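step=encode ok
step=design start
structure_in=
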């Protein structure tokens, strides 16, 4: 406001005072006129011209000409700028920054992080990365003005999605992508697998088949104690329950596939077809729906073409295709349950997310790699919600998690089994007796074992290695845990200060079902924690590289082809090649 506007009307000359009074009367009459509705005799063209002139004035005076200001849905707007201050998001433009539109080029930037209500729970954890990208200049091909048809580096998946959209077949992109990925997985299954025609143990394929065999014919209390020298069951109970169900179905089709003792090493065409089908069906029932809900929940503000391209990226991840459908594993079930859990967190269903993550832990203990990130996120949200709502959510989470574990282990507890039975699955699930690492793994211990023979030096003092690996692992994921917890504390303090500044009660907080400002950091925390476990934890298998690859692939699916996250994928691919080498050798 200029100095002339600060002069009182009494200090103005008589002519300017009369004009000032007339203008104020006209503006008040106009306000009441538009409040009650436009006049019948006023032409619509005049209204349009007046609105367009006002819009042009505001654009020319307040924005840069390189950005097109356009009206957008409310889901693209932030709830508050104070909640993102600690994340180094620029809010220097004040409240106007929250209400202004975002250009089509930057529609997936910071303004799409948090929805304004529960019905618009569409989040984007790539907001922070894209905010940094806009600060350094355009990086994507669209920002640099390169025509899409002239891009020589565009992939086959993007060309397929573009062709489907241009030919009005966008509704068929997702079904055709799922069908194509299913066909690729089924074709990979026609190849060899881990332990093919290599007696007496026959590899991981035989281990999975043997678990179906013993769960069908033995009582529950003997599942974790029967013939441990020949592929004894060493996964949590949910894997055993799924093996039992698959074994029941397979025995109905052909009983000889799972005959106790006599079926060891069976490699008939029918049994292999059935085993491959179990992996594919479980993938279709759990992992594929998890990917689809992720695209809808986390990338809902993006265009349909970008979401379809992201889904293609997630469906055709080569490492998971190689290990699950080539080497033969059920890792997609564990990854799918974890992904469903973070999707539930994004939708505000924290209790459901806790149950899904407990189910992931109950299927494979490797999901513990994600536990520090998910636990610290939930603690940070409890802190963010305040004393009343946060304490209530914490108690509900504790009760829900405990009940989920009790129900999962119920067959091994009284009155179904003696109390001593519970010791067998616990000792089998955490195999510290198998050594520091297994085979050749691209982690810290295996890499440095070339120079320092850890197993030989600490052969009789294995406890030292366990403590060292625990300390290094905790040191690796500590920054991610601290960031989530401190983020919940910091944003809670800022909201309390904001409420005090407007004379509101500090106890007014968002509903527990609403997303928190720390939610976009969760995929980064999952990547940090899982990579720390892979590099430094005790008894790492080569297939555990899939665990840090999941959040990395989620980040990749939300990035432009020229973003730095693609360099991360290049680095991860190199790591996967070295980690999956033993798996490929076992398939020869």
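sequence_out=
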């Amino acid at each position: 406001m200029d100095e002339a506007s600060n002069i009182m009307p009494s200090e103005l000359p008589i002519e300017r005072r009369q004009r000032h009074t007339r203008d104020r009367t006209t503006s008040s009459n106009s306000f009441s006129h538009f409040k009650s509705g436009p006049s019948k005799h006023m032409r619509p063209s005049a209204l349009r011209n007046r609105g367009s002139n006002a819009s042009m004035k505001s654009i020319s005076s307040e924005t840069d000409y390189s950005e097109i200001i356009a009206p957008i849905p409310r889901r693209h707007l932030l709830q508050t700028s104070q909640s993102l201050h600690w994340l180094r998001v620029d809010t220097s433009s004040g409240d106007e920054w929250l209400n202004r539109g975002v250009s089509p080029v930057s529609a997936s930037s910071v303004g799409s992080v948090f929805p304004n209500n529960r019905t618009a729970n569409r989040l984007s954890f790539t907001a922070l990365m894209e905010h940094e990208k806009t600060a350094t200049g355009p990086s994507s091909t669209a920002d640099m003005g390169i025509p899409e048809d002239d891009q020589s580096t565009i992939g086959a998946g993007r060309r397929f999605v573009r062709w489907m959209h241009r030919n009005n077949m966008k509704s068929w992109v997702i079904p055709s992508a799922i069908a194509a990925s299913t066909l690729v997985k089924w074709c990979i299954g026609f190849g060899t697998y881990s332990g093919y025609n290599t007696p007496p143990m026959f590899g991981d394929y035989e281990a999975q088949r043997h678990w179906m065999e013993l769960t069908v014919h033995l009582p529950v209390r003997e599942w974790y104690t029967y013939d441990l020298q020949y592929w004894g069951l060493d996964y949590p109970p949910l894997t055993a329950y799924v093996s039992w169900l698959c074994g029941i179905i397979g025995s109905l089709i052909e009983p000889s596939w799972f005959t106790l003792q006599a079926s060891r090493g069976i490699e008939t065409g029918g049994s292999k077809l059935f085993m491959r089908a179990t992996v594919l069906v479980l993938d279709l029932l759990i992992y594929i729906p998890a990917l689809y809900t992720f695209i809808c929940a986390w990338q809902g503000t993006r265009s349909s073409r970008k979401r379809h391209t992201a889904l293609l990226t997630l469906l055709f991840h080569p490492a998971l295709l190689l290990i699950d459908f080539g080497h033969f594993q059920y890792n997609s079930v564990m990854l799918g349950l974890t992904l469903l859990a973070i999707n539930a967190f994004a939708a505000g269903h924290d209790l459901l997310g806790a149950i899904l993550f407990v189910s992931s832990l109950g299927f494979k203990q490797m999901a513990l790699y994600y536990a520090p990130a998910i636990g610290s996120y939930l603690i940070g949200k409890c802190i963010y919600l305040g004393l009343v709502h946060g304490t209530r959510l914490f108690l509900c989470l504790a009760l829900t998690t405990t009940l989920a574990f009790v129900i999962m282990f119920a067959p091994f507890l009284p009155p179904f089994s003696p109390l001593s039975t519970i010791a067998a699955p616990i000792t089998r699930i955490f195999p510290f007796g198998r050594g520091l690492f297994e085979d050749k793994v691209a982690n810290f211990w295996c890499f440095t074992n070339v120079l320092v023979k850890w197993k030989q030096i600490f052969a009789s003092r294995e406890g030292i290695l366990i403590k060292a690996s625990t300390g290094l692992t905790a040191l690796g994921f500590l920054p991610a845990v601290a960031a989530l917890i401190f983020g919940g504390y910091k944003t809670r303090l800022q909201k309390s200060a904001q409420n005090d500044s407007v004379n509101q009660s500090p106890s007014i907080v968002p509903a527990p079902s609403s997303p928190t400002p720390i939610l976009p950091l969760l995929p980064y925390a999952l990547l940090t924690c899982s990579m720390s476990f892979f590099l430094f934890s005790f008894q790492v298998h080569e297939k555990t590289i899939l665990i840090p690859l999941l959040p990395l692939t989620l980040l990749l699916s939300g990035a432009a082809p020229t973003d730095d996250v693609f360099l991360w994928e290049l680095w991860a691919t190199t790591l996967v090649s070295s980690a999956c080498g033993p798996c490929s050798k076992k398939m020869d």
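step=design ok
step=annotate ok -> Residues 1-12, 26-126, 138-151, 504-509 have pLDDT under 50 and may be disordered.
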